[in-house]
Each structure stands twice: as structure tokens, then as C-alpha cells.
Amino acid sequence: MINYFFLLFSSQGLLLSFLCFASSRISQNIKLGFYILLFTMVLLSWFVYWQPGLPSGVYVVVLGLPAQFYLGPLLYAYLIKSLRWKSFLIPGIVTVLFLIIWMFRFSALVFPPEIKTHLPLFHYTIADLAMVHNLVYLTLILRKGINRDEVFLIFLSLPVLIASQISYELCSKLGFMTLNLDYVFGFAVSILFFISGYLLLVKQRKYVNSQIPPSAMEDLLSETNAHMYEYQSYLNPDLTLNDLARELSMQPRKLSQVINQGFNKSFSDFVNEFRVEKSKELLKSLTDERTTVQEVMYQSGFNSKSTFNLAFKRLTGTTPMKFRNQYSQEEVRMAEEGGGHIHNRAI
After folding, report:
1. Is the pTM of this model over 0.70?
2. For labelling, which of 86, 146, 268, 334 has a CA lying 20 to 30 Å from the CA of 246?
3. b/e burial code for range 289-315 (CB count within 10 A of at least 16 → b)
């Protein structure tokens, strides 16, 4: 009976991935759609594996193992908003390798006995490599920083998958693994995926009855951006969506739609990006050695050190202090090369 829960979760994943692909703002949603689709393939492979009477080994190989290699790069591309095609080189090689194995299994060719004997070990080894591969990308995501308000649950799906794989390995090595425990690990991953999928589905349907035409959306994007640059509303540390909507003479719900769908960001992300750019300008222009990074934080509109550091690192890849140090060192080097002089500045 529990097998059909995996089928239910997989069906929900297919629906959600379709909604992501169908979105008009596909720059980010298409990455999320592929992530959900491939995670769904992993769940489907588990369903088939536990379904009596089906050649489970073949389907787990064809569906589950190659799909796992794409999860880390796709989640990184979605959360960090950066897509590098070379990140998919390893998943592509693994996919081709398993397609070759799949063709052998369904062709008239027969594996030599010595190769067929080692196939299960090969599959387990590839599964471990997929886990390590995803763990590397998980580390990169954590180093960059993520927006907890929007992506916390979808982000958790990968760590829980990795944790379940590690637990499976440990229990197998220690001789504790049972079928029921295997179900528990799979069910924990699936239920979290179901919850995150539901919340993302609600988000996708949030503006279904208030679509903004593309031409009008472009005008609203330009108007909102111009207002932020001209009036620097982001310098108000207590700025809210209602405050900004009032300044723009716009309904709060409409402004939320413009920011969420048009800029593909949350309100806090949208505002904090302006604040980070302002803090970078201030850090570059510091001439008073007594000015601290914390003062720059307040002057940029932030009122929380943790939020400032997280947003700054997510957008620049480094901390405010390191950015200040690096810029100061670069300024000294350029001055020395040009034979000029600069103000002394405390680092």
C-alpha cells in the first residue's frame, strides 16, 4: 500500500513541473521545473523498485541513478540564479553511460558473466558518487547563502535525500537495514517533497486570476526600478511592501505580483539587492579610517548584521569585510603601478 504513496507524490511532482514549464517567466521557473521533474523520476524509480513483478533493477538504473546527478546543479542554478553548462558535464556522462547499459539489457546482446556479476556493485558505487556529487553542490549553495523565506522547503529536499542515502548506507553496513526502514527513508523524502511541492503550487497559482500583459509588465518593471534608483526607498530600514506600493501609487497585491513574477524575486530580495549595491559603493568610497562596516550597513538601509552579511555574500560571493579589504588592496596596487598616492585607510 505504501508504494502508492510514492506514485501519488510523483504525480504531484509531474503536475508541478508542468506548471513551472508553462509559466510565462521561464528564466528561473524552467530550472525549478527540471529539478522537480528529475526529483520525481527518483521517486518513480523507488515506486517501481518496490512494485512486485517489475524488473526493478533496470528501471532504477534508467530512471533513478542518472537523475540524481542533475539535482545538485539544477538546485544551485535555481537558488543562486546562475547556470553554467559545464556543471552538467558529469551528469551527461553518467546518463550516456547508463543509456548504453540500458541498451545492452534490452538488446539481444548478453553481458559476459564476469561483468554481469559486478553490475550491482557498479550501481551502488554510482549511487554513492551521486550522493557525493550532490553534497558538493549543497556545500556551494550554503556558502553562497539562500533566501530562507522563499526556498527553504525546496532547498531541504536535497539535504533530506542525501541524509536518507547516508542513513541507508550506514544501516546496511551495520546490518540494521530492513524493508520497513527502507520505506521510512523513502517516505521521509517523499513527504517533504510533497509539502514543498504543495507550497510551490500555491505560489504558482497565486496570481492566476490577475495576469498582467507582457507590455504592461515591462512598463511596471521600468517604473519600479526607476523609482528605487531615484528616490532610494531602500534606505528606509523599515520599508514594507505597502510603503513602496503607496509611493508608487500601486495596489500592494499588484506590486507583489510585479516583483514576484516580473523580477522573479521576493520583496526582501528585491530591496536588499539595492541595499547591497549601495553598500558596495560606500565601501569603495571610504576615506575615513574610522568608518566601520557596521556604519556602512546602516547607511545602506540594513538594520540586521546577519541579514546584511547573508545578502551581501549571496550577491557578491564574499563578506563585506573581505570586499573592503580586497578593494583596498587593489586600490593600493593600482596606485603603486601608476606611481600615484592614495589616502591611508585602516583595514
Report:
1. no
2. 146
3. eebebeebbeebbbeeeeebbbbbbbb
